[in-house]
Amino acid sequence: MLARYLVLAWVLLGLLPPSVSRMMAQETDPHIRVVVNLVQLNVAVTDDKGNYITGLRPQDFAITEDGIPEKIATFGEGNESARRLVDSDAEESKAAPSAPAEAGSPGGPQTLGSLVAGANVFILFDTSNYMYRGFVFAQDAIADFVRSLESANRIAFYSYSRDLSRGALLTSDRGKVLRAVRTTVAGDEAALYNTLLLTLKDAAQYTGRRVVVVFSNGPDNSSVVPPEDVAELAQSAGVSIYMISTQQARLEPVSTAVFERMTGATGGKAYFAKSWRDEKRAFASIRDDLAHLYYLSYYPQPNPNRGWRNITVKLVGSHMKKYRVRTRKGYRPQPGRYTADTTTAVQSEPAQEDRSDLPNSGMSRNR
């Protein structure tokens, strides 16, 4: 106690050495742990015939958020693991430009199953009373799809009618997923948007490449959640939605338009199958699409916009203008929460990185 009073007296009299003063200031300064959100993008690049373009490099892409240029933090293609672009930018800029290749060419991927490595795939199966007629054929198509994703990281299988049933949580055990597919039974009315929202919330808990594949045999007739809210959550969480629906959905033009708008906004696709053969072809097309996605991410630059942020991804160079880019259109950031005692920034985006203790720092980079 006496020593503490002596130190206080020295401070008041200005007799304390500068080094000790700095040490005491550092000990009393608050340490703010900054959590910076990583915005993740699944990007498909095709030509005007729908062929996938492979072999592109990070510098071939330009990302803007609300018109603000962003710097790519991680990059990956196909089965390669996403790599950080911290020290590699200078080296890649010195490399000779490489021409993009179409899938199937000598420079492109050779197999499909191995190219889905690292993806977390959530399958949502319609088991409502719309499915009585083609139930077994749909199960076969889904089972074949599960088997074809041999190198995907993990797969979850959910089913829905009025309620959501989590038949197999996200797992690498294909046998468990297939058993869940085979044990589904047809049920009540369809609440597609309610259950899709719950599926997206599950997917949002994970990082990396995440997609939801929906098999629906008809329109939604019992949800209370509007499809616009579902699409916004998918975009904000960075989850792509692929939807396969039978011709039954075509009977309601509103459902058709909603399916196409929702999948397009998230960077996915919508398919309308006339037969069980079309269903299998649709699943094969989704597998092919997953196999050729580019994986990009970035830490947003300071942006005062607290609402919806528009994302634009373009290819750099006049020779790239003939190609088409498909990805999600934007996201809505969740506000950070700061507490006086811990001074810890907490964000609700699924992909977060702890940027270490920073003394006397301000807000997180993108807030």
Summarize the structure in words:
This protein has helices at residues 2-13, 18-28, 88-94, 135-148, 174-182, 192-203, 227-237, 253-266, 276-291, and strands at residues 31-37, 39-46, 53-54, 61-65, 68-70, 72-77, 83-84, 101-102, 120-126, 154-160, 164-171, 210-216, 240-246, 270-273, 294-298, 309-315, 324-326, 330-331, 352-359. By secondary structure, the chain is α+β, with helices and mostly antiparallel strands. It folds into two domains: 34-108 and 294-359, no CATH class; 113-291, Rossmann fold (3-Layer(aba) Sandwich). A six-stranded mixed sheet has the order 11-10-9-12-13-14, sandwiched between helices. Strand 4 and strand 5 (68-70) form a beta hairpin. Helix 4 (135-148) runs antiparallel to helix 5 and helix 6 (192-203) packs parallel to helix 7 (227-237). It starts with a helix and ends in an 8-residue tail after the last strand.
Give a short synopsis of this structure.
With 367 residues, this protein is of the alpha+beta class. It is built from 9 helices and 19 strands.
Q: Strands, helices and their partners?
A:
Blueprint: H1 2-13, H2 18-28, E1 31-37, E2 39-46, E3 53-54, E4 61-65, E5 68-70, E6 72-77, E7 83-84, H3 88-94, E8 101-102, E9 120-126, H4 135-148, E10 154-160, E11 164-171, H5 174-182, H6 192-203, E12 210-216, H7 227-237, E13 240-246, H8 253-266, E14 270-273, H9 276-291, E15 294-298, E16 309-315, E17 324-326, E18 330-331, E19 352-359
Parallel strand pairs: 9-10, 9-12, 12-13, 13-14
Antiparallel strand pairs: 1-19, 2-15, 2-17, 3-8, 4-5, 4-16, 6-7, 6-15, 10-11, 16-18
Helix pairs in contact: 4-5, 4-9, 6-7, 7-8
